[in-house]
Structure formats: C-alpha cells, structure tokens
C-alpha cells in the first residue's frame, strides 16, 4: 500500500488539479463518499455537487458537474464535465444563472422537453453559489 493519495481532477478542457492529498470527498450519484489512501478500488458516477480535498488540515472546494470517478488504493481520478475552484467562481454570474433558470423553470411543465435541461442548470447554479461561499 502506498503512503500517499494522488488526486487528479480532469475536464474535457484541462487537468484542473493533480497532486498529493490527505483525503478527498466526492458527490457520487449514490451519495457523497470520502476516500483515504488504501481505499478499496471502485468506479462510480459523479453528480452535480461539492468536491473537496484536504491537504495539511485545509479544505479546498470545487463545484463539479457530472462525470465519473475511479478509485484505487493510491489514486483517485475524477473525470467530469466541469470543475470550478471555490475562489474562482464568479458569484454574480452564478446568481444571474440561478435567476434565469428559476424564471424559465416556473414557466415550464414537467413534461416539456426543456424542463430537465433547465432544472439541471438551476442545480448547477445553486451548487456554484454554495461552493463559492466556502471561499469567503
């Protein structure tokens, strides 16, 4: 068993983070889960939510979108659509996106073709606002 845990957070555009961490917590589609070095290997899907890792007792937060996570005893690879570090989130833009999605959603029936797309946009905006507040 390795003495370190490596985390890689990757989007289609870039490697968002790669480095040694003490632990990582990921928003899985079956619920949030934490990983320490030596964890049993598995593959799972990632949901919209808050990913954070700890280094030296300090938490670093990211707002993440959907994707997948592969866990081994010494490495966690998270392949996701988007990831924004809390201190890099534009709160005003996130609030505007929330307002726009809320307005659009109020005018759509659940059966409408656009309903799910707008609902997910609202979830992403709310998540970004929540994570951005952790950087204050």
Structural overview:
This protein is α+β, with helices and mostly antiparallel strands. It folds into two domains: 5-86, F0F1 ATP synthase delta/epsilon subunit, N-terminal (ATP Synthase, domain 1), CATH 2.60.15; 90-135, Single alpha-helices involved in coiled-coils or other helix-helix interfaces (Up-down Bundle). Helix content is 25%, strand content 42%. The chain has two helices and ten strands. Strands 2-1-9-8-5 form a five-stranded mixed beta sheet, with no helix packed on it. The chain has a five-stranded antiparallel beta sheet with strand order 4-3-6-7-10, covered by helices on one side. Helix 1 (91-106) runs antiparallel to helix 2.
Task: List the defining traits of the structure above.
single chain; 136 residues; alpha+beta; ATP Synthase, domain 1; Single alpha-helices involved in coiled-coils or other helix-helix interfaces; five-stranded mixed β-sheet; five-stranded antiparallel β-sheet; 2 helices
Per-chain topology:
Layout (H helix, E strand, L loop, with lengths): L4 E6 L4 E7 L1 E6 L2 E5 L6 E5 L2 E7 L2 E7 L2 E5 L3 E6 L2 E3 L5 H16 L8 H18 L4
Give the strand order, joined by hyphens, for the main sheet: 2-1-9-8-5
Architecture (CATH level 2) name of the largest domain = Sandwich
Q: Report the average pLDDT across residues.
A: 94
Fourth-level CATH superfamily of the largest domain: F0F1 ATP synthase delta/epsilon subunit, N-terminal
**What is the strand content?**
35-45%
Specify the number of helices.
Answer: 2
Uncertain parts = none
- The oligomeric status of these chains comes to single chain
What is the CATH topology classification name of the largest domain? Answer: ATP Synthase, domain 1
Distance between the termini: 37 Å
CATH class placement of the largest domain: Mainly Beta
Supply the number of structural domains: 2
Residue share in helix: 25-40%
- Tertiary shape: elongated
Mind telling me the C-alpha Rg? Answer: 16 Å
Structural class: alpha+beta
- What is the helix/strand order? EEEEEEEEEEHH
